[in-house]
Amino acid sequence: MFLLNVLGAGRVGKTLAKTLKIAGWKIGIVANRTIESSKSAVKFIGEGKPTTTNFAESPRGILLICLPDDELENLNTILKNWSLRGLESIIHTSGAISSRVFDKVTNLSKNIGKASLHPIRAFADPEKNFSKIEKTYFGIEGNEKGIQTALKIVDSLKGIPVNIPSELKPLYHLSAVFASNFLVGLFWIADVLYSRCEMPESVSKEIIISLMNSSLENLSELEPKKALTGPVARRDWNLIKSERETLKSEVPEFISFFDEGIKLLKKLSGGINYGYKQDSSI
Q: What's the CA angle centered on 134, arms 128 and 140, to 5 degrees?
């Protein structure tokens, strides 16, 4: 039986912990900023000892750290009260930072496993996400012992491991930002525009998601250039110019995004600008 401790049991931390608990892992220490938050996380997970970093702790087994990236740089200070000599491995879930951040933590043993384990999934609702971990891809890197521990976690979660070179973590995470976070931003823009059409919110949401899903289906079968549809793919430059004027009138704060998006799609499609000029004054 594997013993897992969690530092930063937010959406990602408590989702992974609950899934591993169901898979037979034992949950030890669960630490958040406040004891109330830790108790709430333990209740969700179904097991664990709630605590905070203000208390001296001696976790054994594996310590999974699910803190924001900026806080990882302060790990030595955050963990100064903890005795970490009994740990087998220490792992964090950041997609952008490598396991080398653990080299700054002075109270770790020299032979400890160090790794990063990044679930390539959007964690918005733990109640729903913990049951959908299966077949999720996980980007992993670290030293040999740390990677072996990370692989045990991925195996228990029935996920799919992907090895990422440590020095390429920033580029790897940037890809996820474009694929996931920007998609949410695009949804919001489309939703704002549909709201100007006096359309019920429930209907506009279904339309946007349906359109996005159809594009994703096309991308699953075709290369991006062939999956592209719409006025750029058709070379309807006059329509694009007209739509830009509409956008400028209705929601001018989206103009710069529109212009850069059109330039990107033109490059993707190999299109030539037939008279469409962006307004450099915007």
A: 110
Q: Domain 3-164 has what CATH class? A: alpha beta
Tell me the pLDDT band of 271, cut-offs 50, 70 and 90.
low
Instruction: For 210-246, write each residue's pLDDT tens digit.
Output: 999 999 999 999 999 999 999 999 999 999 999 999 9
> Which of 100, 142, 144, 94 minimizes the C-alpha distance to 120?
94
The confidence score (pLDDT) of residue 275 equals 45
Distance CA 52, CA 37 (A): 9
Sequence letter at residue 227: A
| Beta strand extents in the chain (DSSP E only) | 3-7, 26-32, 49-52, 61-65, 87-92, 113-119, 137-142, 160-163
Whole-angstrom distance, CA of residue 154 vs CA of residue 136:
9
Determine the CATH number of domain 172-269.
1.10.1040.20
Report residue 110 as tokens.
């020299």
Cα separation, 51 vs 54, whole angstroms:
8
- Average pLDDT value for residue range 259-267: 94
